[in-house]
Specification:
Layout (H helix, E strand, L loop, with lengths): L1 H17 L3 E5 L19 H8 L8 E5 L12
Parallel strand pairs: 1-2
C-alpha cells in the first residue's frame, strides 16, 4: 500500500511540475535587456520580455512579472 501511495504522489508531483508557467522578470531600474529574464537576472524592458516570450514553444502559460519602475519605451504586441 505504501509503494502505491509513493507512486501516486510522485506522479502527482510530476504533473504539478509540468503545469508551472514559464516566467520572465522585468525590472526597469536594475534589469538589462541582455539578461536572461530570471528573477536574479531580470530584463529592463517589457518589449524585450514579449520578444523572448514569443520564442517559447509548448502550451505552458507564460507569465511576465514586473517590478516597480517606469517603463517609458513604446511596446509593440504581436
Amino acid at each position: 500500500m505504501s509503494k502505491l501511495f509513493i507512486g501516486l504522489f510522485s506522479v502527482s508531483l510530476f504533473s504539478l511540475m509540468n503545469i508551472q508557467a514559464q516566467t520572465l522578470f522585468v525590472e526597469p531600474v536594475k534589469g538589462k535587456d541582455t539578461g536572461t529574464g530570471t528573477e536574479h537576472d531580470p530584463l529592463s524592458s517589457l518589449g524585450r520580455a514579449v520578444a523572448i516570450a514569443n520564442t517559447f514553444t509548448g502550451k505552458d502559460p507564460i507569465k511576465i512579472k514586473l517590478y516597480r519602475g517606469s517603463i517609458c519605451s513604446p511596446i509593440s504586441w504581436s
